[in-house]
Design a protein that fits this description.
3 strands, three-stranded antiparallel sheet, alpha+beta, Arc Repressor Mutant, subunit A, 5 helices
Length: 104
């Protein structure tokens, strides 16, 4: 069961950093080469690599190699999964669980 929570945490970790949110905003316009992302962000090569690793591991972003550069785009499947996961985790259960706390 811990593994499922670890996978869920990867998705939400992708959204909890300002730089990663900016990267996602840039990728909304379509696939971008890492060189373009470097030009548009105030981050070095190692910083970009760190953020892209988190985004790719979350499944929200896909990558492909072309020569020495990596190209990134938003994953339709990963994006849909992230949206449904948020909805699932924030929608109350239809079955009301008994709360045994503080019974008098």
């Amino acid at each position: 069961m811990d593994t499922i929570y670890e996978e869920h945490a990867k998705v939400f970790k992708a959204f909890c950093d300002e730089k990663r949110l900016r990267i996602l905003e840039l990728l909304r316009g379509g696939e971008k080469c890492a060189c373009v992302l470097l030009e548009q962000l105030d981050v070095g090569q190692s910083g970009l690599s760190y953020h892209m690793k988190i985004l790719v591991e979350s499944g929200v972003v896909e990558s492909r190699q072309e020569g020495k550069w990596t190209h990134y785009k938003i994953s339709e499947k990963g994006s849909a999964y992230a949206g449904s996961l948020l909805k699932e985790l924030t929608t109350p259960n239809s079955v009301i669980e008994e709360n045994n706390c503080c019974k008098r």
